[in-house]
Amino acid sequence: MLMAILCGGKGIRLRPLTDTIPKALVNLDGKPMISHILDKYSEKGIKDYILCIGHKGHMIKDFLKDKQSITFVDSGEEASMLKRIFDVKDYFDDNIIIGYCDTITEIDFNDLMNKHKASRKFLTMVLAEIASPFGIVKHNNKYISAFEEKPVFDYYIGTFVINKDAFQHMTLDLLEINSNEGLVMFFKKMVDMGEVSVYKYGGKQLTFNTNHEKEAAEKGITQFYTMREEQ
Fold first, then answer.
1. Residue 4, beta-bridge partner list
2. Residues 14, 210 contacting (CB under 8 angstroms)
3. What domains lie within the chain, and their CATH numbers?
4. This model's pTM is above 0.90
5. What averages of pLDDT result for each successive group of 10 residues across the chain (231 residues)?
C-alpha cells in the first residue's frame, strides 16, 4: 500500500519551533514525529510513502535520505493542502491513503483499504467519536427548541483514502485557494456528489497543532507505545 503524508505546511501555530525546522521534524519523546509515523505505519502495512514537502522540505529529505521506500514531491512553500495532494496524482494508479505529519493512529490500513474498495466511492474518510462536555441546545434567540446533554459526534481525524478518478474534480479554482480551505471545499464537493464513505475508528490517536498540544502529545506518545506493548 502507498501513503502520502502532508509535510509541507509552515506550522505557524508551533512557532518558534518551526522557525528553524519543519513540523515533521519536531521531536516527541526525543524522536521526530515523521519517524514515529513511518515506524508505526510500516508495522501497520504501509510499504511505500510519498512525502508532500514544502516549508524547509530539504531538511526532511536530508533526514530521510537513506530511506529507500520514500518519494518526495515538493509543491513549494505556498502551495495549498489540496495542491500538495493533487501533485501526487502521477505517482499511483488506483487508490492512495492520505495522512498528516502531525497525526499518528493505530488504524488497520489493510481493513481501511479493503472497505474503501468495497464502497466503490471516490473517497473514504476516517472518523472517530468525540463527546461534547456540554449540554447542546437549539434555539431561535428567544426560545429553546431542543436540549441534548453531552452528545457524541463523529469527527474527521486527518486520514482518508482517495481514488485516482476523484482528481478530475480538483478544479483549478479549488487548487488556487490558500491553506486548507480548498481541501475543505473539495470534501464538500465529494459529499454533495454522494462520493464519500465512512470508516469508523475507535483506537488510539495522537495529534498536535500548537505548543500546548505538543506538551500533551509528549505524554501521549509514551502511552501510545505502552499500549502497543501491553496488547
1. 50, 98
2. yes
3. 2-127+156-230 (3.90.550.10)
4. no
5. 88 66 82 89 91 90 87 91 95 95 91 96 95 90 92 92 97 89 96 97 79 67 53 39
